[in-house]
Amino acid sequence: MRRRQLLALSVLAPFALAACGSPGSEAATTGTTGTQGFSYSPKGYDDLTIELDRPAERIAMDFYSAAALAPYGIKPVAVYGFGQNESPGKSFDQTGVEVVGTDMEFDLEALAATNPDIIIAYGNDKGDGWTWWDDKLKDQVAKLVPFVPVKLDGGTPEDMFAQYAAIAQALGRDTETGEIAQQRKAFDAARQRIRDITADKDWLTVLLANFSPEINYTAKKLGVAKMLTDDGLNLVGPESGKDTSWAEVSWEKMSDYPADVILVHDASTDYEDNPIFKSLPPVKHKQLGTWDDKRAYTYDGYTDWLGELADVLEEAKDINKD
Question: How remote is the C-alpha of 12 from its chain's centroid?
Fold first, then answer.
């Protein structure tokens, strides 16, 4: 239910396409943290700079940001938002971290009790609050603690990695060497494996689908879909509307979009016994994989998934050649 709720919100949210960037380049203009204080200018928010005259040491975050910053050794004092029991919440150690809200719920008093220096989370259009806060709550939080936005605009995983690397750098962490550099290298290698497979199988077609009993959603413009397209996958499916990255497809229309491989979204529910699902050629040929646009933005998580995807693509046969 929670994944469906977040999917519904994302279906309604407009997404712009963001350009790719390396972890340090163009992601943000950053200052320093430490004895000189904290300064950060996030990419995508013109003329916005968050500054403190003291170090930013006690940090509240949404679950997605906590997961993404954990590989840099940054642990929050408080967390909230979507993903507590899913990929984001499972990607960092929650021991000793105060949960001040889950999903759309938020406890302002509990947040205040953790005495945070800043909040890092998915930002709204102006960058002055969490993307799902109403104006009243946004203003209440602003009186308590500065908000550091992460731009959520349909960027690729690499774009999101770059934003979080810029924040980590502003917080004084090393983003170019050590373990994080090895994780980035493994991620790049996993993407190269996908590129090698798609170059060898130029006929390969893939459908990204999120199934439910009543209606299905397909995607070609989400950030993760853009990454796969950049790496040579030919994604099929209907075009989405101008204000969403998702397209709705009835069960009766699913066969209109033939594919060699179907990737089933992790949030899909109650679809396995549907006779139309069973009749789809990739299902009959067992050419199925998984995907998730709500996966935590960690190199390790994406590297593992890309490895699983590569295994599926390597074994896939051309089932639509006739």
Answer: 16
Domains and CATH numbers, the chain: 18-174 (3.40.50.1980), 179-315 (3.40.50.1980)
- The C-alpha angle 66, 68, 71, rounded to 5 degrees, equals 100
Instruction: Return the structure tokens found at 91.
Output: 């990607």
pTM of the predicted structure, to 2 decimals: 0.88
Q: How far is CA 260 from CA 203, 206, 286, 314, in A?
A: 9, 6, 10, 12
pLDDT at residue number 35: 55
**What are the Cα distances from residue 217, in Å, to 72, 193, 239, 241, 245?**
34, 27, 11, 12, 10
Q: Which residues of the chain are under the pLDDT cut of 50?
A: 1-6, 8-32, 34
Rounded distance between C-alpha atoms, residue 183 and residue 298, angstroms? 9
pLDDT of residue 22: 33
